[in-house]
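User: Let's play a game. I give you a shape written as C-alpha cells, and you guess the letters that built it. Ready? Here's round one.
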C-alpha cells in the first residue's frame, strides 16, 4: 500500500511540475507579447507626434506662400529649409512605419519560419518553443 501511495504522490508531483512549467512558459509568452505591443504602441505615438510636426510645418509653408502672394515675398532659402524639414519628418515617419512592420513580422517561428499566432507558446508546425 505504501508503494502505491508513493507512486501516486510521484505522479502528482510530476504533474504539478509540468503544470508549473507550462504556466511559466505562458507567463513568459504573455510578458513578451505585452512588451511587443507596448513597443508598437510607442512607435505609433511617435508617428502621430511626428505627423503633427509635419502638419505644423506645412501650415507655416502655406502662410509663407500666401504672404508671397499678398506682396510680402518670402526668402527662397526659408522656403527651402521648411520644405527640407517636411521631407526629413516624412522620412522619420517612413522609418517608424518600417520598424512597426519589422516588429509585427517577428511573429514567425525562429526555427521553421512558419507564422505563429498570438498566445502560441509553441510552433504549430514544428513544435519548437517560441
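Assistant: Ready! My guess for every position:
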Amino acid at each position: 500500500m505504501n508503494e502505491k501511495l508513493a507512486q501516486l504522490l510521484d505522479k502528482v508531483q510530476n504533474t504539478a511540475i509540468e503544470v508549473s512549467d507550462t504556466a511559466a512558459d505562458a507567463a513568459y509568452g504573455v510578458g513578451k507579447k505585452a512588451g511587443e505591443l507596448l513597443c508598437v504602441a510607442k512607435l505609433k505615438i511617435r508617428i502621430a507626434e511626428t505627423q503633427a510636426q509635419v502638419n505644423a510645418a506645412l501650415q507655416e509653408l502655406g502662410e509663407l506662400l500666401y504672404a508671397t502672394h499678398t506682396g510680402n515675398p518670402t526668402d527662397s532659402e526659408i522656403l527651402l529649409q521648411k520644405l527640407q524639414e517636411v521631407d526629413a519628418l516624412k522620412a522619420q515617419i517612413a522609418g517608424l512605419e518600417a520598424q512597426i512592420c519589422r516588429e509585427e513580422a517577428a511573429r514567425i517561428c525562429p526555427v521553421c519560419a512558419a507564422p505563429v499566432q498570438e498566445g502560441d507558446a509553441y510552433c504549430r508546425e514544428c513544435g519548437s518553443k517560441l
